[in-house]
Amino acid sequence: MFATRLRLRDFRSYERAEIELGAGLTVVHGRNGAGKTNLLEALYFGCTGRSCRTSNEREVVRFDAETARVEVDLRDAEGRRHALAVGFSPGETKRLQADGVLVERLVDVEMRPLVCVFMPDRLELVKGPPALRRSHIDQVIAASWPGRSATRRAYGRALAQRNALLAAIRSGRASRDSLPAWDAELARHAIALRDDRAAVVELLAPRFDALAAALGLGAGAQLRYRPRSKAADAAGLAAELAERVESDLERGFSGHGPHRDDVALLRGGRELRAYGSQGEQRLALLALLLAEREALAEARDTLPLMLLDDVMSELDPDRRRMLADLLSGAGQSVITTTDLAHVPGADRANVTRLAVAGGVVLRDAAAAA
Ligand SMILES: Nc1ncnc2c1ncn2[C@@H]1O[C@H](COP(=O)(O)OP(=O)(O)OP(=O)(O)O)[C@@H](O)[C@H]1O
Ligand SMILES: [Mg+2]
Predict the structure, then answer these.
(1) Structural domain that includes position 367
(2) Which CATH number fits the domain that encloses residue 92?
(3) Ligand nearest to the CA of 337
(4) What separation in Å is there between the alpha carbon of 36 and the centre of ligand 2?
(5) Which one, of 358, 363, 262, 286, lies nearest residue 26 by Cα?
(6) Position in ligand 1 atom list of the atom nearest CA 36
(7) Relative to the CA of 63, which ligand 1 atom is closest?
(8) Based on the structure, what is the number of domains in the chain?
């Protein structure tokens, strides 16, 4: 499945725009503030119904306009055409359409393309606290095996219930006798979640290692799951919870279980989070996203659309070439850059170039020729 055309109306700095995307690489270039990231965000918005940039979606509506609208035309592997549309006015329910039919959520739409996005602020995934990596890995689980997304939710609910019970015991509103039953329930969901996370990391790890090497991060890059509990089964984990009851009661919440897991990105056995340079952390994030793309391709038989914002900055010329080579393989990707010269091979005939200036998109004369 790939996106062939994007139409925007009153989205960010664009009053109206319509662009054609290449089946392979599209490079969006222009000066700072020209509207490159806005275009990438619009494509994400059209494919998922959400912004990849802000949780305050009012921001996407063009200043002084009322409704932002994005339409994405798609073509599947058999050449059939599809269309997604998102209309958004602040304070109103979003209007999501798939092939002209109103839907509640785009995530449930079978034909929507999966999207992987790199934005500079996503480096937090490498540099930031474990919570970001946990939730990211859980999203990869949900994207790879939609049926398993329920595991994470079930664990979250059981954890909230146990925390509520701890609070009730502390304030004398409940007795401790009911804890073991809840612990058994929590432990069951915890082990299921740990299994899913272990499975997805196992799927990603060899690819991460190979892609990190292909991106010039050097040999010995590792993605490693670090579960908080090493218990053999649910009964073992329930016993671990029981051992920690006193400290949990003191704190008022559960301090043990998969909500304290981490996924480490390492090179030479050391955490890139602590020891990696800016460029190395960037390469590690790219290797992770590309590994996810390959894993999704295998699990769902479709290559996700890659949206890469300002990805070439901070990379040296060799690494830029390595990344460009990886992207020029199969699949569709859209890259933004302030300088076309930073995208090796951008002048090739099979690359679509779009120049952006002041909220207006121009297809490069060279590309049209
Ligand atoms: N809701 C909005 N309505 C109108 N303009 C907006 C809106 N939101 C952002 N903008 C404008 O969009 C411009 C930024 O666009 P964008 O982030 O796409 O730039 P860019 O080309 O990615 O630049 P850079 O190279 O610096 O990353 C800013 O000038 C900003 O004022
Ligand atoms: Mg930008």
Answers:
(1) 1-114+306-369
(2) 3.40.50.300
(3) 1
(4) 6
(5) 363
(6) 21
(7) 3
(8) 1
Q: Which two tokens stand for residue 189?
A: 């969901």
Average model confidence (pLDDT) for the chain?
93
Cα 307 to ligand 1 centre (Å) = 17
Q: Does 203 map to a domain?
A: no
Q: Would the pTM of this model clear 0.85, i.e. be above it?
A: yes
Band the pLDDT of 364: cuts 50, 70, 90: low
The pick from 37, 89, 118 for probing ligand 1's pocket by mutation, whose C-beta has the most ligand atoms within 8 angstroms, reads 37
- The pair phi, psi for residue 17, each rounded to 5°, is -155, 150
The verdict on residue 223 lying in a domain is no
What would the pLDDT profile of 162-217 be if each residue is shown by its tens digit? 999 999 999 999 999 989 999 999 999 999 999 999 999 999 999 999 999 999 99
pLDDT digits (tens, 9 = 90+) for 55-88: 999 999 999 999 999 999 999 989 999 999 999 9
Examine residue 41 and state whether it is found in any structural domain, yes or no: yes
Q: Which long-range contacts (C-beta less than 8 Å, at least 24 apart) are formed by 180-184?
A: 180/238, 180/242, 182/158, 183/238, 183/241, 183/242, 184/234, 184/235, 184/238
63 lines ligand 1 (CB under 6 A): yes
